[in-house]
Write a structure and sequence with these properties.
two-stranded antiparallel sheet; globular; single chain; 8-stranded mixed beta sheet; Rossmann fold; 2 domains; 15% strand; 13 helices
Length: 339
């Protein structure tokens, strides 16, 4: 496996990021190993909060929340998924599969022997983290799902599944390759076919205008400073480092023929019997995951009776736009559901 490693000097003096790096070796899946980065802050005897980022961000996303958690006496571990942040970056998009991402995270949990985890997951942090929780349930104590989901093409089987596959293929092939983030965003929201997400898939896969900081800043209504923009671009010195960031949307199992569907359906069976505390903390202005909280609230036993949170005025990256309210919701949830 050909692998790239972002030079350390790209991470020097990041704005608002005083945290020391830590690394663990995880199996690459082909007999090689990969270096996976994680932050580890707060007292090691404190209750553990595992913070998982999504696409195209990295653990920098949690920089405003980590001090709030550690001030409350908790330990925070925030890894960078392989292909992101300070973690190694396989050069080929084919190296990034859903199963590989789950395996890499599970290897980190086992190597660090993390237990009694309170999971805080957003975007792909949920798609990967929820699978890890379902497959290693003994390591998890609580879950907070924030602007995320666990898609499994629910209810689509047989002829109906084939019809959906055919329709999605035809729609994808008909889409233009949007040159910039704003154009893609407007097309995605304006697509009335119900397949708006495919604009995002095609943009990440094919557009020369794919800018990591541009995606985050656009989603945050341009609120990022120059230093924050530079920090989101830091892991990616050039296009060759972006294979993982480009690949993620293509892996989302929204098509019934996606190879991750059986594993995600098995994870849902686990969650439909999940008695441990489960909280949804979604924002009110995220067009990507709107409504995904309902399935968790309705189907997960541990979500029954919890004080689920809707965070007002924030979009997809609520860690940037509402770090205080999200951290407050997590801390209250932990206090209301002691181990």
């Amino acid at each position: 496996m050909q692998t790239l490693r972002t030079p350390d000097d790209r991470f020097a003096q990041l704005e608002g990021h005083p945290f020391a790096p830590h690394y663990v070796a995880v199996p690459a899946g082909d007999g090689d190993v990969l270096r996976m980065h994680y932050l580890d802050e707060g007292p090691h005897n404190g209750e553990l909060i595992l913070c998982l980022h999504g696409q195209p961000t990295w653990s920098y996303l949690y920089r405003k929340m980590i001090p709030l958690f550690t001030a409350a006496g908790h330990r925070v571990v925030a890894p960078d998924f392989i292909g992101f942040g300070r973690s190694d970056k396989p050069a080929e998009r084919s190296s990034y599969t859903y199963a590989n991402h789950v395996g890499w995270l599970k290897a980190l949990l086992e190597k660090l022997d993390l237990k009694d985890i309170t999971l805080v997951c957003q975007d792909w942090g949920g798609l990967i983290g929820l699978r890890a929780a379902a497959e290693l349930p003994q390591r998890f104590a609580r879950i907070v799902a924030a602007n995320t989901g666990l898609p499994d093409a629910q209810g689509l089987e047989g002829d109906a599944a084939q019809a959906v596959n055919d329709a999605m293929t035809a729609h994808y092939e008909s889409l233009p390759v949007h040159g910039g983030v704003p154009e893609m965003g407007m097309a995605m929201v304006g697509d009335r076919s119900g397949m708006g997400f495919l604009h995002w898939v095609k943009f990440c896969a094919e557009s020369p205008g794919f800018s990591v900081s541009g995606v985050v800043n656009f989603s945050c209504n341009g609120m990022l400073s120059e230093g924050e923009v530079a920090a989101y671009d830091a892991p990616f010195p050039d296009e060759s480092y972006k294979a993982g960031a480009r690949q993620f949307p293509s892996l989302v199992p929204i098509r019934p023929d996606n190879p991750a569907i059986p594993a995600n359906r098995a994870a849902w069976k686990r969650f439909e019997a999940w008695e441990k505390p489960f909280l949804t903390a979604f924002s009110d202005s995220d067009p990507v995951t709107a409504g995904a909280h309902k399935r968790f609230q309705q189907r997960v036993p541990g979500a029954q009776g919890q004080q689920h949170v809707t965070i007002k005025g924030a979009g997809h990256f609520l860690q940037e736009q509402a770090p205080g309210p999200l951290a407050e919701a997590v801390l209250k949830f932990m206090a209301d559901n002691p181990r």
